[in-house]
Amino acid sequence: MGIDYGTKRVGVALSDESGRMAFPHIVLDNDGKLLEQLEKIIKERAVGEIVIGHSLDRSGRPNAVHGEVEELIGDLTLRVGLPIHLEAEQYSTQEALRDQGRTAQTDASAAAIILNSFITKKK
């Protein structure tokens, strides 16, 4: 599962069964139900690993969202106990916008870009 974390919306992507390619799945509101919704997807889709976009500024230092991402990692670790990886996410949303324009699935597409980057490096 790939996650593009945002303060308002969270994009989620899933890989195919072989783990070779990521696809946009859903965009969730970043609200009090986020962890419950992520946990439900993880269980329903038998997710084995989670990849979260590592939020850094242009100079490679943690940005304002980084602390929230770390909190999400801690919460997910306690709830589901799966391996969680950080993958650089700089410009993933801009890449999704360039490829498809602004749609309801833009954040999920950014999550797929993050997950595909991780998958490619893992090969």
From TrEMBL:
Keyword Ribonucleoprotein: no
Domain of life assignment: Bacteria
InterPro entries linked: RNaseH-like_sf (IPR012337), YqgF (IPR005227), YqgF/RNaseH-like_dom (IPR006641), YqgF/RNaseH-like_dom_sf (IPR037027)
Every YqgF/RNase H-like domain range: 1-96
The keyword Cytoplasm belongs to this UniProt entry's keyword annotation: yes
Alphabetized UniProt keyword annotations: Cytoplasm, Hydrolase, Nuclease, Ribosome biogenesis
GO biological process, one term: rRNA 5'-end processing
SUPFAM superfamilies: Ribonuclease H-like
Database matches in Pfam families: RuvX
Annotated GO MF terms: hydrolase activity; nuclease activity
Name of the protein in question: YqgF/RNase H-like domain-containing protein
Species per Swiss-Prot/TrEMBL record: Candidatus Kaiserbacteria bacterium RIFOXYB1_FULL_46_14
